[in-house]
Design a protein that fits this description.
- There is one protein chain.
- This protein is mainly alpha-helical.
- Helices cover 37% and strands 0% of the residues.
- The protein contains three helices and no strands.
- It is elongated.
- The mean pLDDT is 76.
Length: 134
């Protein structure tokens, strides 16, 4: 219903009678005391398994000692910057053909693969075209 219709309806009915607000419920004469909270209790412990703080402290101390020994002995045994990678370059005579360079590369690759201390190897060859030398 729109506001205009409501206003017409109010005018047609007449002024509303003023009534007293409803009475508030009577207040209790005596204030009721709040219930006291129960005291907090420690968490229940499984029967036969007492909580031993000393054992926990001893285990933490042993872990700390083990970490310190590890930090002092293991880290210095690895040289700084050792990634285990070796880079090499081989150079042939000036004027060598690409086929000669490929044969040389195969011989070098085979020598590297035959070495028992080499885990993996990778070779790459680059050829320079006359357009690149300008």
């Amino acid at each position: 219903m729109s506001n205009r219709k409501r206003a017409r309806k109010r005018r047609a009915v007449g002024p509303a009678a003023v009534t007293a607000p409803p009475a508030a419920p009577p207040r209790p004469t005596k204030q009721q005391a709040r219930p006291k909270p129960e005291p907090r209790r420690a968490a229940p412990v499984a029967p036969g398994v007492p909580f031993e703080r000393g054992a926990l402290i001893g285990a933490g101390g042993a872990a700390l000692v083990a970490f310190v020994i590890y930090a002092l002995t293991v880290q210095p045994s690895v040289p700084a910057g050792d990634s285990g990678v070796v880079n090499g370059v081989f150079i042939a005579q000036e004027g060598s053909s690409p086929q000669q360079m490929q044969a040389l590369q195969e011989r070098v690759s085979q020598a590297v693969r035959d070495d028992p201390s080499v885990d993996r190897s990778e070779t790459t060859s680059l050829t320079r075209s006359p357009a690149m030398s300008a």
